[in-house]
Design goal:
It contains nine helices and eight strands. By secondary structure, the protein is an alpha/beta fold. The longest helix has 22 residues.
Length: 216
């Protein structure tokens, strides 16, 4: 089973300034971020390549996987740890064939367990559901029930990621439900102290998992 997708999964904000992006991501990594996804919907292809290459070097410094959102060719070009595909962003089986068996491949499944079934069958090794809470990034996103996490964990032997409007206030109920990682943009990268925000999320995982272990 893929064990790399766990804890705080930080998704980058749309920033045109590569230096600013790197400073913020370094702070998140210093705070304990376990996975970074590079997502920039507004960048040109040249800027996207520049930022992805720089982030790959930064993540390697921290031994943290970098996942590229949507762009398979870019993921391959910078030798990222993996790729994440939304529902209309590419064929999962084709992506797996090009990535090979050892790269990470995630898929957005929104509020539908059947999308997860198809994604896993096609080669995804982790699946994401959401938006669980109101999101400023995707305000019109569907809102799955919390028990979808529990159902998915019972059905699939791979990491489940929650996304959408997640704050430290919301995260405990997701972690308790069994989610392996929480994907966060705003609550980390708009925080006054990015490293402290990342540290708070990661501490929630460690604390709740410790309580669970003691209960067993």
């Amino acid at each position: 089973m893929n064990t790399l997708i766990a804890g705080l999964y930080a998704i980058t904000p749309d920033l045109a300034d590569t230096g600013d992006l790197l400073r913020q991501v370094r702070a998140a990594l210093t705070g304990g971020t376990r996975v970074v996804q590079y997502r920039n919907k507004t960048a040109s292809p040249a800027l996207r390549r520049e930022q992805a290459q720089a982030l790959q070097q930064l993540c390697a410094e921290f031994t943290v996987p970098l996942i590229i959102n949507d762009h398979l060719d870019l993921a391959l070009a910078v030798d990222a740890a993996g790729l994440h595909l939304g529902g209309e962003d590419g064929d999962i089986a084709a992506a797996r064939a090009r990535l090979g068996p050892h790269k990470l491949l995630g898929a957005s499944c929104y509020d539908r367990i059947e999308l997860a079934q198809r994604a896993v069958a096609a080669g995804a090794d982790h699946i994401a559901f959401g938006s669980f809470f109101a999101s400023t990034v995707k305000p019109g996103a569907v809102r799955p029930p919390l028990d979808l996490i529990t159902r998915a964990k019972k059905q699939f032997r791979l990491p489940v990621v929650a996304i959408g409007g997640i704050t430290p206030h919301h995260a405990p109920q997701l972690i308790t439900a069994g989610v392996d990682a929480v994907a966060v943009i705003s609550a980390v990268f708009t925080a006054p102290d990015v490293a402290a925000a990342a540290r708070e999320f990661q501490a929630l995982f460690e604390s709740l998992h410790e309580k669970k272990s003691k209960a067993l």
